[in-house]
Amino acid sequence: MPEAPARSRHAQLFEFVLIVALAVGLALSVQAYAVKPYRIPSESMLPTLKVGDRVLVNRLSHRLGSAPKVGQVVVFTPPAGAEAVPARCGVQDRNGRACPAPTPRRASTTFVKRVVAVGGDRISIRGGHVIRNGVRERDAYTLPCRPDDGCDFPRAITIPRGDVFLMGDNRGNSDDSRFWGPIPRAWVIGQASLRYWPLGRLGTP
Q1: Annotation says 36 is catalytic
Q2: pLDDT in tens, 141-182
Q3: Could you tell me which residue ranges the Peptidase S26 domain spans (predicted)?
Q4: Closest C-alpha to 75, from 173, 203, 190
Q5: Which of 8, 61, 66, 113 is an active site residue?
C-alpha cells in the first residue's frame, strides 16, 4: 500500500497540534473565568474543611453578578493587614465591637471563610455565635469557642451595603472579619462549591 503523501502527514500533525492547543486554551479559560481549584492551608474552617482538602471554586456566578449569601463558603481577597499578627482593623476604637471597617487596600493573598452576614445586617457575636438582626445563627457546622478564646463582641455593628462579613467555622482559631472587618463583595472570588479531595470527603462544604 503506498505511503501517505508527506503533505497529508503534515496536515494531520498540524490538526493534532491545533486540537491540543485549543483543548489547553479551553481548560485555562475555564480555570481563569469559571472554576478553579484551591487547597485549604489552615485549620480555620474545621470541621468543614481540613488542612490539605481541595475545593473547586465557582468563579463564574460572581463574575455574572451573583451576590454572596449567608451560609456560603467563599474564597476571597482579604484587606491588607489581615495576614498580620495581630490582624489590623481599619478602625482604632472598637469598644467591644467586631471590627466595623477594614483597611482600604487588598492583601496579596486569598482566604476561605463562611459568609455570616451581608450588607444591611446588624450583628453582634457572643461566645463565637453570630447574632444577626436579633436572631442567633444556626451554626451546628462550627467548632465552639472556649471561654478564653476571646470570642465575645457584644456591641453590635451594621454591615455596610455592598459588603460581606466572614468567619471561619473554627470560631476559636480563625482570623476573620471579627478582627479585620467586612469586605466589599467585589473582593469575593467565588463560592467553594465542591470538596473534591480527598475522595473520602467528596461533597459540598
Answers
A1: no
A2: 999 998 888 899 999 999 999 999 999 999 999 999 999 999
A3: 14-197
A4: 190
A5: 113
C-alpha cell at 167: 468567619
Q: Which amino acid is at 15?
A: E
Cα–Cα distance list, 167 to 2, 75, 78 (Å): 70, 12, 12
The DSSP secondary structure of 39-98, one letter per residue, reads E--SSTTTTTS-TT-EEEEE-HHHHTTPPP-TT-EEEEPPBTTTTSSSPPPS-S--TTB-
Q: Cα 19 to chain center, whole Å? A: 34
pTM for the structure as a whole: 0.83
Is residue 66 annotated as part of the catalytic site, yes or no? Answer: no
Please tell me which residue in 44, 124, 174, 177 is annotated as part of the active site.
44
30-60 per-residue burial string, b: 16 or more CB within 10 A, e: under 16 = eeeeeebebebebbbbbebbeeebebbbbbe
Closest CA to 90 of 76, 77, 104, 78: 104
Domain boundaries, the chain: 1-33, 35-201
